[in-house]
Design brief:
- The complex is a heterodimer.
- Chain A is built from 9 helices and 12 strands.
- By secondary structure, chain A is of the alpha/beta class.
- In chain A, strands 6-7-8-3-9-10 form a 6-stranded mixed sheet, sandwiched between helices. In chain A, strands 2-1-4-5 form a 4-stranded antiparallel sheet, covered by helices on one side. In chain A, strands 11-12 form a two-stranded antiparallel sheet.
- Chain B is mainly alpha-helical.
- In chain B, 80% of the residues lie in helices and 1% in strands.
- Chain B has 14 helices and 2 strands.
- In chain B, strands 1-2 form a two-stranded antiparallel sheet.
- In chain B, α2 (21-43) crosses α11, α4 crosses α10 and α11 (207-221) packs parallel to α13 (254-271).
- Chain B is globular and about 55 Å long.
- Chain B starts with 7 loop residues before the first strand and ends with a helix.
- The chains are: A alpha/beta, B mainly alpha.
- Chains A and B meet through α2, α3 and α4 of A and α8, α9, α12 and α14 of B.
Chain lengths: 266, 286
């Protein structure tokens, strides 16, 4: 049976009087992955922010984790967000800030434990499980702000998996990382996608970062869906060239699609 | 005089200590409450909220004086009002929180001075609010400070993991399913309470140093929030005690002595910070 994680029907999103997304219709079931692709300012991140309740949905029908999110109150949002693993674009943390890598992973359990409750042994063992899975033992006592971008992103990912989310919202998780880290993180995301126990929405410029098992892609331009559907139908040279406004060549390798914004004969 | 007293500390007699028991108690409690709140607003990167609140409390106290109402409740009400103005002001206008703090701070300062100039009687009592007078603290005031300090410690203790998440990042905290606005505003309200009860003894101009210096010092010394809180408490209580003793022994203004001691402590923390050295070394390979 398919369990719907989210469905948008003609949804528009606005922030401070500015329309960010217009007439978006998209949906995702448990076990599926959805790639959101498009140029800068297309509204990719806004889509995730709207799902998190950080941007306002002004029209349309929006269901998220079987709740009508347009009707949610501030307190109810906290309940919904507990089930969502949200990874925003990398945030700067002061190198002196008093939090260790391990504590960041444990933060993933804070919402579930709830106010006035201490973190239970179970919470700690869930966090510990991800620390082991990701091989973070050497980093655990290090101040989070002093780790490299790749290490921080790995810990962020462990933090949101410790949340045991029903859906993952990843905003350019590999941006700014070197090739080795791009690969490590890419493999981790593919592994999560393959397990098919959650849903993944991943925003990216670099479509080769989409996990190979991700079959649904939405191509956004200027706040609208330019084309959404199966990966093979959406990621075509013709459509991408139109959206990005320059000639783009495609190359496929190991289930991943690479975009080359240069002509072959240059 | 010799042999008359069993205990003597820098010219201060044990009987004098008893005479100043309320002042000493107030100094310790103010040190604890201000340092704890200071760590939180410092880690939230909005230490200036301390300045805003202290001047809002000042404006409230001046208003109360003008109307002939009790000072503390009005000071507290105005400082809480400022807290509930600054958050939404920053959210609505997309102005940085620290800028909004500055705008409201100058408004509160303006209101305070307007109120002072409109007050016909001698202004000594009002001017006293600017620098405070810990030596004249009354038993009632000590009780209020004690109550505020206990409330702060209990709240921080109960919501420690939530506050920690919010200090780390407000958006992430909200994304984790923490009811972020509740905790964020509780923190600002706690700050308002602590600042208004301590206004009379520390003064609107100097309370900032007891809020921020211990926190800034502790920030140099530890990577654990719990340790940071403990260190800040020690620094805060240390500065207020040392300031009090010096002011007694050499007849210096108490508030000023406390500020100077807490600034000295901060300088020492920076000087001996293991973090600075580590960051420097780590800068090469990491």
């Amino acid at each position: 049976m398919k369990i719907s994680l989210f469905s948008f029907d003609q949804v528009s999103v606005a922030h401070r009087g500015r329309v960010l997304l217009r007439n978006i219709s998209l949906s995702l079931n448990r076990g599926e992955s959805l790639g959101i692709v498009g140029p800068n300012g297309a509204g990719k991140s806004s889509l995730l922010l709207a799902l998190m309740g950080f941007r306002k949905i002004v029209s349309g029908k929006a269901e998220f984790l079987s709740r009508d999110i347009r009707a949610l109150k501030s307190r109810e949002w906290s309940e919904v967000r507990k089930k969502v693993g949200y990874l925003p674009q990398q945030l700067q943390v002061d190198p002196l800030f008093p939090i260790t890598a391990e504590e960041v992973v444990l933060l993933g359990r804070v919402g579930h434990a709830g106010f006035l409750h201490r973190l239970a042994d179970e919470d700690r063992s869930i966090a510990e499980g991800w620390i082991q899975t990701f091989g973070l033992n050497d980093l655990r006592r290090r101040p989070f702000g002093q780790l490299s971008g790749g290490e921080q992103q790995k810990i962020n990912l462990a933090r949101l998996l410790a949340q045991r989310p029903e859906i993952l919202l990843l905003d350019e998780p590999t941006a700014g990382l070197d090739l080795e880290w791009q690969r490590t993180l890419g493999e981790l995301i593919e592994r999560i996608a393959r397990e098919r126990t959650t849903g993944i929405i991943m925003v990216t410029h670099e479509v080769h970062q989409l996990p190979p098992s991700c079959q649904k892609v939405a191509l956004l331009r200027q706040g609208k869906i330019f084309k959404a559907g199966n990966k093979d139908e959406v990621l075509t040279e013709g459509l991408l060239s139109q959206v990005y406004g320059c000639q783009i060549n495609l190359s496929s390798h190991g289930g991943r699609v690479y975009l080359l914004p240069w002509r072959h004969d240059d | 005089m010799e042999g008359e007293y069993t205990f003597c500390l820098g010219g201060m007699m044990i009987e004098d200590l008893w005479l100043f028991r309320e002042t000493l108690l107030a100094a310790v409690l103010a040190g604890v409450g201000c340092s704890v709140i200071g760590v939180l607003i410092f880690c939230l990167r909005i230490p200036f909220v301390g300045v805003l609140i202290s001047h809002a409390a000042l404006a409230g106290a001046v208003l109360a004086h003008f109307l002939g109402w009790p000072e503390l409740p009005v000071a507290m009400a105005v400082s809480l009002l400022s807290v509930f103005m600054v958050g939404p002001l920053a959210d609505r206008t997309e102005i940085d929180l620290n800028l909004s703090l500055g705008i409201l701070f100058s408004l509160m300062m303006g209101l305070s001075f307007l109120g002072m100039s409109l007050t016909p009687e001698p202004k000594t009592a009002l001017l006293g609010l600017l620098w405070g007078n810990i030596l004249l603290v009354t038993g009632k005031e000590v009780l209020a400070i004690a109550a505020a300090t206990v409330v702060v410690l209990v709240m921080i203790g109960l919501g420690f993991k939530e506050f920690k998440a919010i200090l780390y990042n407000r958006t992430i905290a909200a994304a984790l399913g923490i009811w972020e606005p509740f905790f964020f505003y509780s923190l600002l309200v706690l700050c308002g309470i602590v600042v208004s009860v301590n206004l009379q003894i520390l003064g609107g101009l100097m309370i900032y140093s007891l809020l921020v210096n211990p926190a800034a010092g502790a920030y140099q010394l530890s990577y654990s929030l719990k340790q940071m809180l403990l260190i800040a408490i020690l620094l805060g209580v240390g500065a207020s005690m040392a300031g009090f003793f010096c002011s007694y022994v050499w007849s210096l203004p108490t508030g000023a002595s406390i500020v100077i001691f807490s600034s000295l402590e901060f300088a020492l923390c920076v000087l001996f910070s293991p973090k600075r050295r580590k960051v420097f070394q780590g800068g090469v390979d990491g």
